[in-house]
């Protein structure tokens, strides 16, 4: 992603913030491979305190279990980079924060850590609202570490926009 892509990410965050304000919803993030970049992008928007509640950076498996309630069995059976863990991260963040919408990301940004089954660039996403079951998606991005992480942030916001826009106002 080019240098001006942070502005594009912030544009997505701005649109999300406007939608969440309309709904009187707040957002929580649960991030692993992005290390807080989603939260940083959200809070780069002036007035984001009206719709951004908090972010969890749970890089280690221990943090995922202790902070978000991810089951140890999920980590052992599926691995940290899995849709199962991404869904549990999103749900755990949502319930811990007591807000209306959550996103989670867990992946392999590289350049190390990839396997044949989960190559570098594999990222698992989880999204949920207080009125819906968590949904997840796996994407395999190309590029270097920074590019993979930036693309992850963009997809996270796109998914939030889709979910918040698709859910009927309570």
Task: Please give a handful of descriptors for the protein shown.
Maf protein; globular; single chain; 5 strands
User: What CATH first level would be assigned?
Assistant: Alpha Beta
Biggest sheet, open or closed, and with what strands and sense? 5 strands, mixed
Q: Give the low-confidence spans.
A: none
Strand order, main sheet: write it out. 2-1-3-4-5
The count of β-strands is: 5
Give the SSE string.
Answer: HEHEHHHEEEH
Oligomer: single chain
What share of residues are in beta strands? 15-25%
Query: Distance between the terminal alpha carbons, to the nearest Å?
Result: 37 Å
The helix-and-strand class reads alpha/beta
Q: How many separate domains?
A: 1
CATH architecture: Alpha-Beta Complex
Q: Rg from C-alpha positions?
A: 15 Å
- As for the CATH topology, it is Maf protein
Mean pLDDT: 95
> What's the total helix number?
6
Description:
The protein is of the alpha/beta class and 170 residues long. It has one domain (5-166): CinA-like (Maf protein). Helices cover 46% and strands 19% of the residues. It has six helices and five strands; from the N terminus they run αβαβαααβββα. The protein has helices at residues 5-23, 37-43, 61-68, 72-78, 83-97, 145-166; strands spanning 27-31, 52-57, 101-107, 122-129, 135-140. The protein has a five-stranded mixed beta sheet, sandwiched between helices. Helix 2 (37-43) links the parallel strand 1 and strand 2 (52-57). Helix 1 runs parallel beside helix 6. The model has no long low-confidence stretch (mean pLDDT 95).
